[in-house]
């Protein structure tokens, strides 16, 4: 059996995929190099759709290349901030919305997610999420902006109405070098 707790992004995706079936709509809020977009697009299949965003031109190019290589044409890709996701995705329509916060590895580390806009994006994510859907957030606190962002995101998540949402936070407590952490929120 595959060891599920060695790679944060893989665990985040494994759990997210449990909430997705063929034909669904899924949102990748931060497509980066396109790894997560490809996983979501494969899961929703030809009859489904993925809407993906990134504010960085290079990320949109990389994701487009990955999708062409994988022969996936069920993704609408936008050079756009996730704060505007509700302009592209209808309310209560998405089975999953994922955020992989921070900066693009190998890219411009100056272009990173920041607490203020991330909180707006997360609120929009809950708006577009359908009942029974999941919001998955991978957080990095190994850099200064990431630490402030994590504090703000967890404070926001703790305050969510427990009658409307379940929130869980996973922290890889014995690993070196600030391993990423995961926040999952499901909508009742
Ligand atoms: C850690 S990377 C994402 C990795 C990606 N999920 C993958 O599978 O390769 C974070 C991405 O967030 C993007 N980003 C930062 N602020 C953003 C915003 N407001 N809206 C959308 N994307 C943003 C960055 O440009 C960067 O590409």
Proportion of residues in β-strands: 15-25%
- Ligand identities: S-adenosylmethionine
Shape: globular
* End-to-end Cα distance: 31 Å
Model regions low in confidence, pLDDT < 50 over at least 5 residues: none
CATH superfamily: Vaccinia Virus protein VP39
Total number of strands: 7
Concise overview:
With 188 residues, the protein is of the alpha/beta class. Helix content is 33%, strand content 24%. The protein contains five helices and seven strands.
Describe this structure as you would to a colleague.
The chain is 33% helix and 24% strand. It is of the alpha/beta class. The mean pLDDT is 96. Helix 2 (35-44) links the parallel strand 1 (25-28) and strand 2 (49-54). It has a single domain (8-187), classed as Vaccinia Virus protein VP39 (Rossmann fold), CATH 3.40.50.150. Bound molecules: S-adenosylmethionine. S-adenosylmethionine (SAM) binds next to helix 2 and strand 2.
Write the layout of secondary structure elements.
Blueprint: H1 8-17, E1 25-28, H2 35-44, E2 49-54, H3 57-69, E3 75-79, E4 94-100, H4 115-128, E5 129-139, H5 144-158, E6 165-170, E7 181-187
Parallel strand pairs: 1-2, 1-4, 2-3, 4-5
Antiparallel strand pairs: 5-7, 6-7
Helix pairs in contact: 4-5
Key structural traits:
188 residues; Rossmann fold; seven-stranded mixed sheet; 33% helix; globular; binds S-adenosylmethionine
